[in-house]
Batch of 4 targets.
Target 1
Amino acid sequence: MATQHSRSAARLMMSPAVILLLGWMLVPLIMTLYFSFTDYRPVALPPTVAECCVGFENYVRFFTASAFMDSVWTTLIMVGGILAITVVGGILLAILLDQPMWGQGVVRILVIAPFFVMPTVSALVWKNMFMDPVNGLLTHLWEFFNATPINWLTDVPLFSIIMIVSWQWLPFATLILLTAIQSLDSEQLEAAEMDGAPAIKRFWYIILPHLARAITVVILIQTIFLLSIFAEIFVTTNGAFGTRTLTYLVYQRVLESQNVGLGSAGGILAVILANIVAIFLMRIVGKNLDA
Amino acid sequence: MARAVTTQKKAIYTVAAWGIGLLIFFPILWTFLTSFKTEGTAVADPPVFLFFDWTTDNYTVVQERSNYMRYLWNSVVIAGGSTLLGVIIAVPAAWSMAFVPGNRTKDILLWMLSTKMLPAVGVLYPIYIVLIRLGVLDTKGALIVVVMMINLPIIIWMLYTYFKEIPVDILEAARMDGASLRNEIIHVLTPMAIPGIASTILLNVILAWNEAFWTLNLTADDAAPLTAFIASYSSPEGLFYAKLSAASTMAIAPILILGWFSQKQLVRGLTFGAVK
């Protein structure tokens, strides 16, 4: 059906999107690459204006600073922790919500609500109204049980942020997995039950394989969004107490200390690391989605 | 054969699910309740749940003091504008990829998605400089374009997924019956494409409304949307729990309601049809 004519028309229709995305990707990336080889500190005294080239000085400095490896670990722990909580929690919650009950529709609405809450709102609400060491609701709860309240964002900051972000993303995982479970052929489950397969085995050999594709999708989408967590850290700890992800470290170098050269080198490193993750994920997507 | 479920089992599931559901929803409920308290009641020890003198003062104060309507308007313009612009650019692209696929279509689609993985922070400063040079930093127009670019890959993927589901047979049948291209587009294609486009718009308004990284870093005052407005409560004003709650409630209510309506589309859209 695709004639030469329709092919060129298609190319024409695609070109605005392709050109825009290419420009959006290449122009800033090339600029960042250029900055990363310069000593560029616009607000230093005296200001150092983009002096090319200092070679790999910035890269070496960024790479060897202890903050770099720390931030990579923080990123991995944060993303990994959130993925683990939301995927495992999502599977359990989806199975529960799939059971017969009264008011299933309402429960579903309650469960998915956090996904639509603005990240800055959820971070602030959690920080002030729940995790505040004096007036936070969790503090009252701890005191009620005569336990010593925890100063969440300074004592267990990384854990606190993982909790906040998991709260935001658990609904997404649950909703996707619930939809997948509901598409499961119930006759197969019934047959297995008739044959006397216990619940654990039914879960392991029937439900979980059926969910594999949905789990892949959840991990992919969440990773895309989670690698660039920003607002939650910005609002709660501002990168202090070991909650500095790679994204946040670069942000601090570039915008807060205005060392554009150094920050840009970090930015390029972040791009390279993200690409390694991306290639890995894209393989899975390419296999799992029929494009 | 439906499995016979005992009432007892159903009751247990109901209690468990409602318990967990309310636990997850609780922070939102608590924010909503706190927004009607006085500052004193908001930090009362022990906390009060429902039985307090309800007041709407916080809403009045938030609106008067920080001009909430302006931030709301900025959010509406940025979310709406970027979605509209994105859809205008994405529809032809997704359309041609779905109906006239070439050898490289799949590669192009995956490449587009991979631009989503480009760490925003790596390109923040260049974009910042470009906007300053163009004299458009802290304008709604610039934010519309930036947020549009952020979501464009997702928009294209979603539209592609929906368009792909339109059966080509119907098109061919219409052509056999002698439908003109005009009629084909108006009477056959459009009715089938509209639901997909509508879902895409809905989801992208939600994503754009909540987008925080670029709105926080590229706006100062004039173009700041609700995300930035709320972040300004970070400290020390954040200690005013009741006002923070009122501001938060106003910021999330419209999108929460929109989100509840679009939960079905969310599954299809954000998973690119891989889960139905």
Target 2
Amino acid sequence: MFSIAIRYLCGWASAASHKKEEPEWPPHPDRVFMALVATWAETEANEAERRSLLFLQQLPEPYLSVSPDFELHAAISVFQRNSDVEERVPVPVYVPTPISDDELRKGRKSKDLLKVLPSERKRDKRHFPAVIPESDTVYLIWPDVELPAEHRAALERLCAKVGYLGDTSSLVQMWVEDNPPPPTLVPTDERHYSCRLRVFRTLDELKADYERDQEAGEYRPRTFKWGYYREPEEEKAPTPSSHFAELLILRRTAGPTLDITDALWLAKTLRDAALSLWEQRIGPPVPEWLSGHTPAGERSRRENGHLAFVALPNVGHEHADGELKGVALAVPQDVTKDEQTLLLDALFPWNKQTGEARPLELTLGRLGVWRLEQETRSFPRMITLRKPVWLGPAERWATVTPIVLDRYPKKDEREAEEMVVAACERIGLPRPREVVLMPGSLFIGAPPANRFPPLPKKFGKTVDQHTHALLIFDQPVRGPILLGAGRYRGYGLCRPWRSGGEQ
Amino acid sequence: MNSLTLDRLKEIVSGNAAALRRVVELQPAGGPGAKVFPPTYEGGKYATEKRRIKGETVDCVLLDSVQSQANRMELALQEAVEEKRISLPVITVDFSGTEASFIGRVTSLEAPHRIADAILRDSEWNDGTGTKLPFRKTPAGAALDAASLQNATALFEYCPTALVFGMWDSTGARGGLGVKFPRAIVSEIIGIGAVPGQRTGGRLDPLQIALKAGPVYETEDGDWTLDQARAKREKDKSGNEKLVLYGNKGRPSEINHGNVTPSLVVQKDKNGNPLDKSGAPTKRADEWIPIGGFTIDRAEQITVISLPTLRRLRFPVNGNNDADAAARVALTALALCAATLSGEKGYNLRSQCDLYIPSGVPEWEILGRNETFVLSADDAVKLFNQAVEDAKNAGLPWNSAGMKLTPRADLVEMVLRSRAVGVEEQDEEEA
């Protein structure tokens, strides 16, 4: 095993993703490789160093150890009127722009010419997006590769010569590390399940790009190689978890504003769309794990339950307003990756030519259409769309949408608490040590239980017993946690609760 | 406490240390917990962030950005050059003999793009024989076309600060592909434990003029009067003549007298209407966005000098690279000098944002070597001047006399015309 370590010396990492005002985090392996190649070319173009680069480029994609949590550096909160959300964005900086010969010659009549003076210089809006990660050091790790002795010295020398990564203000120290921490992101073939990062191109490709730019006299767009990364599986194993294993998050990119109390309706709409798209694009029958019904039309008795449809609201922070930002599919543990991929391919058909998935359009009656894309960005800016926010693990969990009890409790609160305990056990969780029922949610932005519409029931029953709850387990457990009678339809959604407030 | 000698600096630069880093603890001039006013960005907002400090998440606010710190360091160097404390090549464009003499002079330490700036490009140099050469045809200007990381000798000679603060020759013949030198020093100041404050505006009138002292009338010549006989008269809609009140309501406050009721300072649009977070005017006071600075526990200035960035530069002299080490040491000393001199000037960042160092001379860490040193401004100056001597002895050129340029006649003419146009347009706006 060996790794390349990168320490951000100012405590923050500044590099723009393909959207100029958004930061790139984690630093993409290709960015690191490019920095090494540039260092090689800009210093002596040493032969031993070149061979070490050739050795690197033929390695498999590296594992990464990187802080999943970060804060934006020097950011402001802005209100996006079109999507009605408040977001943190890097501050726009106005920098003096160069004045070209052309501008000077042409613009004689304009008062802008005075702007050649430093104090009057025209300024253009620029973003220098940067993140402050929890830990300032990142590792690119090859767990199954030994660094051959012949390349070690050259690679160490090359690393030591890299001064910055991304923007020139993003100063780093780089070195070869033989004892890196365990990876937090591992490469995967499953494009649906994680984030998309640029991975190493070859030295020849980079040289060809450079020569083409020199010839053209300008920088040209280029094609990158993309790799997919997910959290390592090992991490989940020792933590007790519900029988929902995976949470696939879909981000709303367009469409009307919906409130958290529309969760039930939105989940039903998504379920209907999923069933019909499966029939259309994969072909009947719709599997039991997806529909929740046996081929004979009876209610499914699968041990691990079936697919749950969850609406994801913006809750739990100062500016939370309970607006739905996206949806998620909670996948039972025994549904294989292949089966999940079939479903995702049905929802988001892959366009081979562009290498992109087509968005899913969810018709919401007269309200319009929600356009959904799978959240595969490395770290979504919107907290609601980050997986760890819903998965934990954590000891304390609290409801965001209320739990629907199986029946109206006849005796007292203890009976209701017992029903919630049973609901936990039903989805494979250990018994919680404590259950506290309450009419309101602990999360800012989530309304009281009685504001949520009742679950439609068979046999004309309309009385619904909705309750919010706080669950405390003896040990951290992993989500997604969906409890109660409405768990497949967006109710009983829980989120880790950290005492004294949100993360 | 270790101080830094030239020999030690040579060891550090030629060794494998990654960087020199200094964290300066600062306090608001008003003492701990006093209010400071950070720079505002688009929409009158402050740049805030959360940092992990000793395991805790702490609210922080940006007090001075990387770009702003670089400008402050360059100005500190400019001052030191003028005081003759240091010897540093600077290129100056002197407008004083021209009709645009009001501009004074612009140096490569002030021009936004350093030696690659358009002002320098459009100036001329008298080569001593009476011939005027455009800057880019002079040895210094032409050096930009040939400069690269492998050959930074000419830049070292004429504008070494470009190698420390970074430079991109994007206005030259090669446009966007012009030579780029990454910055080697990064500094910024953040306020830690930042709590947004609320500022109130108000005024107590020493004359105690009361509202009842009015109404104030407007006179025919636009002045004000209390005398109804002198007041301007107008006809209202129904044709009756009436006296014209000064301003909207003829209050004493409209001629800047009387008390002003204290009120919250909030974000407002052009017409003075308070705005909500979406940028729309609102009358609801609970939606107004306060502008009121921050109280902070303390501030921190973090300065990092990247040694690999400087080690990447090469300085061939007469075809050999024997002087590389001496040049890199001189540039590192220049960066140290810029950081310490700027610190010596104090931390008066802007109005209502004064900071000071509560105690002692801050330490520099040598990252990768687990060592520290302290460096006062005087020592930094001494070290730098020694390092320059050393570089010169190694054969490196150092144009400490600097270069004096005069603006091209076209440039002066353009400035004059622009100024005239500017004044005219301003008149139109006022009319």
Target 3
Amino acid sequence: MARPMTMTEKIFAAHAGLNEVSPGELIRARLDLVLGNDITAPPAITEFEQISAKVFDKDKIALVPDHFTPNKDIKSAEMAKTMREFARKHDITHYFEVGRMGIEHVLLPEQGLVAPGEVIIGADSHTCTYGAVGAFATGVGSTDMACAMATGETWFKVPASIKVELTGRLPRWVSGKDIILYLIGMIGVDGARYQSLEFAGEGVATLTMTDRLTIANMAIEAGAKNGIFPVDAVTERYLSGRVTRAYTPVAADPEAGYVRTVTINLSQLTPVVALPHLPENVRPVHDLEPTPINQVIIGSCTNGRIEDLEQAAAILKGRQVHANVRAIIIPGSQAVYLEAVNLGYVETFVRAGAVVSTPTCGPCLGGHMGILAKGERAVATTNRNFRGRMGHVESEVYLAGPAVAAASAVLGRIAGPEEVK
Amino acid sequence: MEFSGKVWRYGDNVDTDVIIPARYLNTANMKELAAHAMEDIDPTFAGKVQQGDIIVAGKNFGCGSSREHAPGALKAAGVACVVAESFARIFYRNAINIGLPLIELGEGEVNIKAGDTLTVDLDRGTAQNLATGEEFVVPALPGFIQEIAQSGGLVNYTRQVLAAREGKK
């Protein structure tokens, strides 16, 4: 009988061929998926070519050009070309060309490429998103990606886990983004450093898959190695029709050991924003002084799913974006885009005076499509508000969920959704 | 491994976006990126950093992105080693993988100032601030991570793993 284990420990034990693992232990684990994008894959490809002539499994590598695509300049076009040619040479099954792509962390779950109990690494820090479906998923660098593409395995230090106990039910206009910002505000940007955030409690069942994806996505902003949710009826409904291969969900043992338990009563949460320049600077939106803004971004791997756009459309319908604001809306994938067209959201956005873009990470990381000038201020549903993140080093990013972002677009200042009359 | 260098001092939560801003990531040429290293918090750094200099910072150094360009740009700029109270985990892993030495001293005030000279002996596991005479113990890396470091980084280590696998066939 193995010792009681957390979800992450159980997944690691299964992938390392061990009966049990303990926090702090160094293991080698086999990988179910290795991900890279147009920024991180090109250097990984250079290193891969020094190591091996063939990839470990052409079906278990995903390559997504999403950061600087459609390419913003010649240099980024060259990087995307490197990745495209590599994908062709090795006959990579899951290469997603512009026009069939999406922001990687919106696209992969949507396409059924991640499943419960799996181990996934990606050369992108927000790879932790896939914890939402009960997988172990974490971000790594390009050298790790290169070696993993050659061997199909990598090394890990087994993390200790923090249990995040959710109780109650979210009030209207409060979403997954508010939960994760509230948690980061509570424990700090290094509050879970080298650790796993394992979500639990009766409140989990009330959260949509979109809420869970948003929460797991930002586990890294608390310094966590991964964030992980239990696999329940909501998960199974989401996976049905997407994942056709066999998978093995795991559940935490009741006696599993946690370094700490944090409890959040969802019923008591209100919409929040994270002030510049760290995601931990979290305040209730109603506590802010009137703060005029220049730009709103709704989208990104954190909040670019159809439910996010639905919230924004509900607020923007029949209203106008404030004259001083540029509102940029970015569906997270081609499928999300098409659904937003069919549901009439795109028309709502355009009539409101917003811009709707093809899927891209662009503005989130200060790449393209919405760079801020000196002294400008944005409300964004993205995941980081570090200094200079979205443009000029003297610009400011306020992080929020789609409801606050849309309300702010209408009122021209940071605003809660119920302020929009 | 022994080295000595001038200290650049920074605070807590130095993130990967200030180590190397994403606007420059349309290249993976680390020499080109080194010219922009740290510029959003310290515009003087790239122009003045000398081969062998050492960065000393507070907690959670390297938080944020998985971009290996961050430790890569520091290494290419000539930084011999980063000393911090703690490191964000992806940065830590990336630095080990590419062979940029890191020293994690643990939380608490580190009495090292900008411009001080630090000598580090990784084999003996000691460091000394020549400006104050203060000595520090450098925590040893776990055995497996030492193996990666001794192989000269993860690429060489992986070559050995693959060669051993071929040998077994």
Target 4
Amino acid sequence: MPAVLEHPATLLESAPETPAAFPAWFAERQRAAWQRFLETPAPKRGDETWRFSSYKQMDFAGFSARSLVSSASQLVARSISLEEVAAKFVFANDQLIHSDAKLPEGVICLPLAEALVSHGDLVKEYFMKRDTRLGSAKWTALHEANLRNGLFVFVPANVEVAGTIEVFHWLEGQDTAIFPHTLVITGANAKVRVVDYFQSANDSDAGLAIAVNDLNAGPGSKLDYIAIQAFNEKTKVIQVNETGVAKDATAIGFILNTGAVWARNESLSRLEGEGSRSDMLSVSIPAREQEYDQRTFQHHVSPGAYSDLLYKNSLYDESRTIFSGLIFVDEGAHRTDAYQTCRNLFMSDEAEANSMPGLEINADDVKCSHGSTSSQISEDEIFYLRARGVDPVRARQLIARGFSVEVIERLGDEKVEEMVLRFLDDKFAHIAGGGA
Amino acid sequence: MSYDASSTIDAETQEAIDIDRTKGDFSFPERHKFDAGRGLTERTIDYISDVKGEPQWIRDFRHKALKVFREKPMPTNWATKDLDNIDFDIIRYYLSDGEKPKRSWEDVPEDVLRTFERLGIPEQERAFLAGVEAQYDSEAAYSNMKEELTKQGVIFVNSTEGLKNHEEIFRPWFGKVIPTGDNKFSALNSAVFSGGSFIYIPKGVKLKQPLQAYFRINSENFGQFERTLIIADEGAEVMYMEGCTAPKFETSTLHSAVVELVALKGAKIQYVTVQNWSSNVFNLVTKRGLAMEDAEVRWIDCNIGSRLTMKYPGVIMKGERARGEVISIALANSGQHQDTGAKMIHAANNTTSNVVSKSISVGEGRATYRGQVHIPKHLKGCKNNTECDALLINTRSRTDTYPAITVKGNQHATQHEASVSQVSEDMLFYMQQRGLSEGAAMSLAVNGFINDLVREFPMEYSVELKRLIDLEMEGSVG
């Protein structure tokens, strides 16, 4: 493993150094990315991709990309996972602190820092090859310039990874910034599931994470990706997810948001081949003053593709959500079948939900629809549960849980669904009075 | 007072005005009694105020608006780049020969004439719609109707007259629903407005007949920058119809109206627009209603034609149980962009709003729905329902939907649904099996798509509307 460089200067002050072990092309990309970061203007009021956003959240000046970790062994122990996994990687402040993998032959599953050295050409072919379109071009440039590690997964044609590949990203230390990166490539008819867990070492350190995923589903393959965002409520997160789905391939992208004070999710799925399918799913439970800003893009490049987006938010206390989604159908992308639904369930009279479900259709032979609703729990439902002896706080939790389960069930694996529900229940347990 | 009133057009200007020559040359010699000249300066405003003999407060209002217009940026973050093609310096902001625009039949383009024929519009009305100075034999009938309205205390005059003769009712609401600085085009209108209606319906008066019937013979129909203010006092009811189903043959390229509606406690205002602009017109209109306690404002809006229409009728529901509604149809043919939608601002408890919008994109036409629903904090029991459906006719047709819904608090219900579809092959095949041509089958399918909305229009409108859609669909298939 290459040595991890300390970069004690604050994040925005000077260009980070690329570790010497990394290939020259990568060092060049990092230099260019830093330049791009400097040249790209910060989001401003009036930018359509930042409508309703809280600009003040984007003051990242005080953060530094430290790699020092004081509690590595404890963090490894706290990396509670699914019972049986194909591989498990634990990173803390972008340093690998644990790895364990039992994978079929031919599968390359390595920390990105190693893959850059041993499989540089393959990484180069897929690494951040798409432009960020949903507003965070400046922040993904900062990510690219500061990138030190992450996970690289390559599953060759016709190989199925039976279990799940798990990646833990821990954040430790006041004002620490991390830049997790996950790059997944599946060959023809391959199959894999990757789970990223984002957590804080303690409740007191305010951190920053700018995470980017490149997911590339080859022809006929199946790629499931799950992100569990459960940072402490002082941390800020930008997560950018770019998925390309080839002919007859299926990709699932799921995001659970329970943590962070401010989280911006940008998810883009490109339907690149006929018969491709993308399921974009999310469950968010914001409480107190948490704000989740969700931007999605279903890009139908190829004819005859299917995409379905389902985002559900249960809003407690003074929390706030923004959902802005777009189904974009290219000229000639006929027989597109695309759906987009965002549902907001209000658990408090102080919460705020903003929805901007959008369509841009440039082909005529299509079936596209979107919907957005916001509503509250009906008193009848509460009454029904109370009549059966459930206390009101629990009753409201049960309803919010049931509301979310509809999305989680689409993951199609009981063990994984249970794991997601554990994080969900953990969140409910931390909401004062159950949000009643 | 002397201003450059020259109507000779130099080559460069000609080129700038001439956006779509294929639809007929709209520039022809005119001799206007009053002409503010080209471009917009303080002098233009003083000229308009002088000609109209306006009080000082209106002159000041116009001057202030001009400043705002100059400072305000174009709506650039989402609006189409086509807006950049408007050259504000070549526009003539005020033209009047005192009464009616003078044009002759020879100037009316072929397609406009054909539309008149096909809609079965009577000779007299055609003459009026084409802007030809027409001989009316209905002057007597008009006077009778006017008298009846006057007896009930209804005021129905053009806005200049409203300002002069009814300042005490006009002034308190003028510019209050749509402030000057609302957007660049409302500022422009505030600076140079002329024409449009001022209507006041007294307490409890419920008009049985829609008001436009009178308006058709009210000569001030033509205005690039008309300003309309309708006030329905407590419990009053009125339906107002603007425009007509026939093509509005305009010589100007920019139309920028401001329409303000005020429905006081328990009042009801329905505002019906069916517009079919000629295809060189930028139609950039700001329309908003204010609904007090138990009041209702309902916009029924149909947009056909124009080069670019940007129009989002809105309702501010300011009193408890107020209700707002927008029912709209847009049809975009090749070279046209219908950017329409609705804004629903809930500002009191138990207010409800409903938006139903249907669009059809034909050829290379583009239809856009842009919506806003806003329910701020500390309100209770607000409801919004929004439905938008888009129909695409050809492979290069285009449609977009961009709603924005903000809800604060848990005592409300909002839902938004939109769908995009095309006319199904099966349906067309089925109809063709029964002897309809492909075009006729397509027209039938399109009319079926908007049928439930067309029924919301007054009867004579809905018949004309259906014919108009048939006409637009002609030759659009394949």
